[in-house]
């Protein structure tokens, strides 16, 4: 065995950092060849969408393969344990003049009441970050502050006390973010000749059911059919039974959501 075979996917210090601060930067995660193929494929996807050809992202071989790539899955195992399921993959090409995104968090829970299990978003910056188009803002340690997803949107994309700006990343770098970490994209001038190639893939830890992404069954079936389960070793990533359809519960919840929810739960499941 080489040293690489036995080295932990994420050092103890980095694991501790992730759980405390809520994020972990993985510089140069994707090698140059794979990165070039992903960028070419994202260009294809942008062309398809312009022609109203909306294919599932898992059906694109390079981006689909990214969702179960050992490079990331081995690291997520170190951070989340052996079982977790993919929630979604999004791919986008941010052009110059992109309007950015206000402060928010992306943890899937309805309503937002606790952080008992981990959900992560992996942000892939295929063309890196260089201070143009949009900077990533994060507020370290905010993942444990329970707020609605858009509850801090009124802060726009301003600095917050303790927030960090990520504006320098080499192409092919990734950041694993606890999905509940407060983050934003601050619009920046420039980048006319260099769009920002961005993919995010999110995963939910096993142990509770999570609100589903639309068409989760269809997407997971397609992923498995295309072999993204890597001969059974990664089938667990595409397990639709880990999710529930929130919309079906909305009405009943709204009706009962009065005063303290703990009172509604009295005697249930304890
Ligand atoms: Fe987000």
Number of strands: 11
> Mind describing the biggest β-sheet?
5 strands, antiparallel
The SS-based structural class is: alpha+beta
- Identify every distinct bound molecule in the structure, by name, code or SMILES: fe (ii) ion
Over the alpha carbons, how many angstroms does the gyration radius reach?
A: 19 Å
CATH topology heading: Jelly Rolls
SSE order, as H and E?
HHEHHHEEEEEEEEEHEHH
Report the CATH architecture: Sandwich
End-to-end separation in angstroms reads 48 Å
Residue fraction in strands: 15-25%
CATH class: Mainly Beta
Low-confidence parts: none
CATH-level-4 superfamily name: q2cbj1_9rhob like domain
How many DSSP H or I helices? 8
Biggest β-sheet: strands ordered side by side in the sheet: 1-7-4-9-2
Give the tally of structural domains. 1
Shape: globular
What is the helix fraction of residues, given as a range?
25-40%
Q: Averaged pLDDT, please?
A: 95
């Amino acid at each position: 065995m080489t040293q690489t075979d036995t080295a932990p996917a994420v050092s103890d210090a980095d694991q501790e950092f992730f759980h405390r601060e809520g994020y972990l930067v993985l510089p140069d995660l994707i090698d140059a060849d794979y990165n070039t193929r992903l960028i070419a494929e994202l260009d294809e996807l942008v062309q398809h969408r312009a022609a109203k050809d909306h294919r599932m992202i898992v059906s694109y071989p390079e981006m689909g393969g990214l969702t179960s790539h050992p490079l990331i899955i081995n690291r997520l195992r170190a951070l989340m344990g052996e079982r977790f399921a993919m929630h979604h993959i999004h791919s986008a090409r941010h052009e110059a003049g992109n309007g950015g995104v206000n402060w928010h968090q992306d943890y899937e829970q309805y309503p937002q009441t606790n952080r008992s299990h981990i959900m992560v978003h992996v942000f892939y910056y295929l063309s890196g970050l260089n201070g143009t188009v949009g900077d990533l803002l994060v507020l370290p340690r905010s993942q444990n502050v329970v707020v609605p997803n858009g509850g801090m949107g009124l802060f726009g994309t301003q600095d917050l006390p303790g927030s960090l700006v990520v504006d320098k990343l080499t192409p092919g770098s990734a950041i694993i973010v606890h999905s509940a970490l407060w983050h934003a994209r601050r619009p920046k001038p420039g980048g006319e000749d260099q769009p920002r190639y961005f993919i995010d893939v999110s995963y939910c830890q096993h142990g509770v059911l999570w609100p589903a992404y639309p068409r989760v069954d269809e997407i997971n079936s397609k992923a498995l059919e295309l072999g993204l389960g890597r001969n059974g070793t990664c089938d667990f990533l595409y397990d639709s039974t880990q999710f529930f359809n929130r919309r079906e519960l909305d009405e009943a919840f709204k009706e009962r959501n009065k005063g303290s929810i703990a009172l509604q739960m009295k005697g249930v499941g304890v």
